[in-house]
Amino acid sequence: MAHPLDNPVWHALTGPHAEFAQGAGAARHYPRDMAPFSAIETAAPEAYADLARDLPAGLEARLFRPAEEAPPPGWAVISARSIRQMVAETKGLAAPHPQEAALRPLGPGDAADMLALAEVAKPGPFGLRTPHLGRYLGLRGPDGRLLAMAGERFRLPGHVELSAICVHPAARGRGLGAALTLRLAREALARGELPFLHVFSDNPAAELYARLGFRDRATLWVPWHRPAA
Known about the structure:
eight-stranded mixed beta sheet, two-stranded antiparallel ribbon, Aminopeptidase, 2 domains, alpha+beta
């Protein structure tokens, strides 16, 4: 049987995140202001038909797939990139970072500051309701400005994805990204969940995650497919 992490968005939206899911049949979507991703159970034409049915008009379906796949007729390929999927286990995880003690939970009252930091640090897709998907931690400077944050995005049975790991340019070089990643990973492991993350190979952060104890589990593909007009 295929591993759930080979199709993480599908198993999240038909599992712990089913309350957020849009769509039916063999396709699901996150609301775009939470996460701009969709999923299909398999790459069958019937699944793509379900995918098109509830895809917002004019938008592409952004998928996580276990291999490079061509869409069926009637779909255009907008983009397709490979991405590293990394996991961490208790054995091999780096020791706690000194900055972890300064991290604090972030909540609804921090939403505007989180959006502002994401706009500057550009950690990847981050919308108004992204923080509703899981726990977030952050660190503020003496002036109250949010300098760093990270949180949880895809959640599937026994697994949780770490995401939006970002640090303001003015606060880089202090180990805040490492502290956030380690704290969230250790908390996930304590709950019995395996922490994982996704990173493109050309992202320098991949080397940081490897030093922290994350290992490559698989190479997935992130295709953007759009129904032909």
